[in-house]
């Protein structure tokens, strides 16, 4: 599908793609780009810098052992590409056409093409091809297709067809952000492959919300939207706050157990600092049970009768329990 700036598209696997111009898209021939081919062009070429060690046409011919008869440039180029291919290398001539803009194409300018110009070659060495395709039998054919794609990407960049594509799931949640998508055909610029399904419909609407309304119409379904951030905060805030309040209250009872031990109303288990010795209904009279500190705190938290009994014992030792306005135990303070 042909894409354009400011449009929304629905993919076959029910993803929505928002397309916009990539204002920061760099040339596909920038130094950081990972390309199979290397451009051999003149210094003032609109295609960019010379990416090879060759400095002249004669230098390139000499490297491949091709002699020129000085009569036909086209014949020399043909012999050069054939010799290179026999050795497992690829050389593709590239030219530009300038008329109110610049476009690049594979091949040599035609006769009487005053507005076309030969720029140089896109070259892939045998070693690099073997490295990219691990010596597979179809490596040369795949490499040739890759070089042709690199020419298409460069042409797209020259014509300002560089896009940023934001991908959303069916709940309008962003799942990917694709930058430097070169070209306006989703089948050849890698967009269909990136989203895992062909783009099959353009969605009307100027906003994401309008696009999603249209996508649901096309799919024939009604999708409950995923909660927004404010809705998620509302959904989860109360349980979180309740849990936080509970933990604050429970911490006071852990501190109470510690105070009971310090005042010899409970004893520390000498074998485990996280356990205390208590008299408990689960064991015979005059027998101390070893219990986890948190279990004891939980029993005190749950049992007002046990709390009141221990509070009475603490008051006799000069410790006064403190309560909140809601009647929750908060801690102890010394009675002067």
Overview of the structural elements:
The protein has a 5-stranded antiparallel sheet. A 4-stranded antiparallel sheet has the order 3-6-4-5. Helix 3 crosses helix 4 and helix 7 packs across helix 8. The relative contact order is 0.12. A hairpin with an 8-residue loop joins strand 11 and strand 12. It is α+β, with helices and mostly antiparallel strands.
Task: Please describe the topology of this protein.
Layout: E1 7-11, E2 16-21, E3 38-41, H1 57-64, H2 73-86, E4 90-98, E5 102-106, E6 116-124, H3 126-133, H4 139-158, E7 162-168, E8 174-182, H5 191-195, E9 199-203, H6 208-219, H7 229-262, E10 267-268, E11 275-279, E12 288-292, H8 293-302, H9 304-316, E13 319-323, E14 329-334
Antiparallel strand pairs: 1-2, 1-9, 2-7, 3-6, 4-5, 4-6, 7-8, 10-11, 11-12, 13-14
Helix pairs in contact: 3-4, 7-8
N- to C-terminal separation?
Answer: 84 Å
Order of helices and strands: EEEHHEEEHHEEHEHHEEEHHEE
Strand order of the largest sheet: 8-7-2-1-9
Rg, Cα atoms, Å: 38 Å
Number of beta strands: 14
Share of helix, binned: 25-40%
Using the alpha-carbon principal axes, give the shape. Answer: elongated
What is the average per-residue confidence, as pLDDT, rounded to a whole number? 84
Query: How many helical stretches?
Result: 9
Tell me what portion of residues adopts beta-strand conformation.
15-25%
Low-pLDDT segments: 232-237
Summarize the main sheet: 5 strands, antiparallel
Quickly give the structural class.
alpha+beta
């Amino acid at each position: 599908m042909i894409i354009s700036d400011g449009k929304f598209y629905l993919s076959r696997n029910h993803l929505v793609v928002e397309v916009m111009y990539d204002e920061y898209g760099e040339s596909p021939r920038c130094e950081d780009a990972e390309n199979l081919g290397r451009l051999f062009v003149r210094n003032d070429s609109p295609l960019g810098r010379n990416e090879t060690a060759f400095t002249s046409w004669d230098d390139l011919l000499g490297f491949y052992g091709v002699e020129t008869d000085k009569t036909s440039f086209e014949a020399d180029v043909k012999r050069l590409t054939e010799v290179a291919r026999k050795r497992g290398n690829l050389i593709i001539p590239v030219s530009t056409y300038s008329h109110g803009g610049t476009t690049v194409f594979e091949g040599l300018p035609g006769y009487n093409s005053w507005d076309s110009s030969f720029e140089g070659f896109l070259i892939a060495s045998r070693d690099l091809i073997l490295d990219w395709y691990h010596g597979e039998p179809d490596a040369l054919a795949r490499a040739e297709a890759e070089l042709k794609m690199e020419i298409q990407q460069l042409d797209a960049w020259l014509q300002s067809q560089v896009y940023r594509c934001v991908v959303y799931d069916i709940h309008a949640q962003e799942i990917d952000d694709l930058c430097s998508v070169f070209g306006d055909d989703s089948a050849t610029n890698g967009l269909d492959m990136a989203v895992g399904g062909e783009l099959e419909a353009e969605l009307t609407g100027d906003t994401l919300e309008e696009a999603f309304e249209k996508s649901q119409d096309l799919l024939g379904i009604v999708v409950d939207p995923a909660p927004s951030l404010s809705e998620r905060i509302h959904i989860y805030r109360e349980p979180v706050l309740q849990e936080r309040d509970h933990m604050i209250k429970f911490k006071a009872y852990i501190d109470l157990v510690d105070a009971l031990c310090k005042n010899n109303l409970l004893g520390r288990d000498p074998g485990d600092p996280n356990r205390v010795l208590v008299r408990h209904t689960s064991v015979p009279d005059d027998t101390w049970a070893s219990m986890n500190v948190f279990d004891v705190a939980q029993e005190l938290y749950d049992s007002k009768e046990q709390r009141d009994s221990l509070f009475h014992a603490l008051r006799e030792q000069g410790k006064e329990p403190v309560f909140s306005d809601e009647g929750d135990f908060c801690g102890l303070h010394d009675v002067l």
